Amino acid sequence: MPNNGLSIGKIRGLQKTTSSAGIFGVLAFDQRQSLMKMLDGKDGSPVSYERVAAVKSDVVQALAGHATAVLLDPIYAAGQTIANGTLPGTTGLLVAVEETGYVGESTARRSVLLDNWSVRKIKRMGADAVKLLIYYHPDAGEITELQESLSSEVIEACAKEDIPCYLEAVIYSTNPNAPKGSVEFSGKKPELMVKLARRLGALKPEVLKIEFPVDVNHEPDEAKWREATRALSEASPVPWALLSAGVDFDVFARQVEVACQEGASGFIGGRAIWKEGILMSDIERQIWLRDVAAKRLDTLREIAEQYARPWTDFYPPQPASAFQDWYQSYGEP
What we know:
Elements: H1 8-17, E1 24-29, H2 33-39, H3 49-63, E2 69-72, H4 78-83, E3 92-96, H5 119-124, E4 129-136, H6 142-161, E5 165-171, H7 183-201, E6 207-210, H8 222-235, E7 240-243, H9 249-261, E8 266-269, H10 271-274, H11 282-307, H12 326-329
Parallel strand pairs: 1-2, 1-8, 2-3, 3-4, 4-5, 5-6, 6-7, 7-8
Helix pairs in contact: 3-11, 7-8, 9-11
């Protein structure tokens, strides 16, 4: 393997999920549990499978062409949008490998893989990358170790199948008296995010997908935003892309600009782009996605392309000699 650590399949997967400049401009729509809650009837009746799948297809059809790639789940969207033609063949595809949500207490969260699904199946279906979401606190002791062990398991499986691993980490509070949205937790968040990036980056996923390191509801000073984001970038040994974490679009756009100016390699955005359209009628949604959400994606792409750090800075191209006779042992243990 070349000394930049990337094999042929991983290089190709990163190329296919980023722009020609090596910037992440990914649409995230792998939500399951949270999306179903949004779509449940006013009387509490559960939304049907067909309804969830149809909404997913609507969003993918309208927005995939504006993104470098889309992140989808296997239950409602990944195979379905390929089969029904709403996912263009020119758009990259990331597929989630984990079960939605977490097990355990809210202050001790543990992630699990989706039953009857695997990295191997994701590679076999033709996807370009694997995404694993873990809930993570760097100082949670045994739970931290378990989450890192699961991450290593998936990263190793991705190496075996020669497909990039996007490791998403959502931080949480281990103190029930100081939840994530509290002032107390917000004061600790920048330091915790630096620890998160350092520890998870050391596991060697190809990409980290992580949230903004400052709670902007409690910290309005953009100088502090930049300081925290710069420290996060310095701590991460791999490229990282910013997730939207459900914030409003205007806030996310500003976060993307700051993050990319301070070392991020782009964004992987979800609800900030499409959430208002979910409860609209089918016709209203299609119009809104075309007229509003698509323009949001275009705006975010323009920001990222202008300021973000390409992933190739972390994995510089190697000379042809580095791959001499590579095919002879390719795929062997």
